[in-house]
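Subject: sequence -> structure tokens, single chain

Hey, anyone have a minute? Need the predicted structure for the following. Not urgent.
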Amino acid sequence: MLSLASIVTTAAPVTQEKRGLKSCYKHATLTQYWIPKEGDKDEDNDGHSVSLTGPKTKTLKTSSGKKIAKVSKTTYEKFQMEGTGLLKNGEMVNLDDSKDDFMEVNRKKDPFGIGEDDDVALEPWVSVASNDLDRGTTLYIKDLDGVKLPDGKTHNGCVRVDDEGWSFDDCQLDFFVLSYQDYKKLDDKIGEKVSVEKKKCKVQDYVTKKTKKWAVL
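Reply:
Had a minute. Here:
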């Protein structure tokens, strides 16, 4: 028989996942992030429009010095900013050990990029980044339920924490929306403040032929 002391010392700590979400998630901040694609329109950190084109003067290379591709200065800087990028030929890169080292993403395993861990594949309109929730947590966002997505499907409000955000505070989610064009289309449909509930909901597959075509799959 266990003693009271043994029970106290061996009991699992009450985690945030068991407690539920913090009250601030009733009015959480929702931002969006995407994959910058070579040749597309995009924007910089100040919200100014940029084009990921131009003379290919910068080299994407691995930490071992292997050349991946040459891209324009604007494209290179955008890939650095977002930590990932898609080349016109379908190759995807992700930042590696430093802001100047990139790795080639295995697109058979991770067609839309990788999350916080190398073994987590991002899914458009499903994955969210958070810095105060456990990976794999499913969430219901009422404000997303019923929203028509750029690919024509309708969202059911269920998302999953697959990534981590380093540049924002707690009670904020960064919603993975695939492309800059998708972000522009959804920006007016989704408010900056949303109501978030921790819930065992079923995430949907929103990938269509249109999605795969943009992603060069």
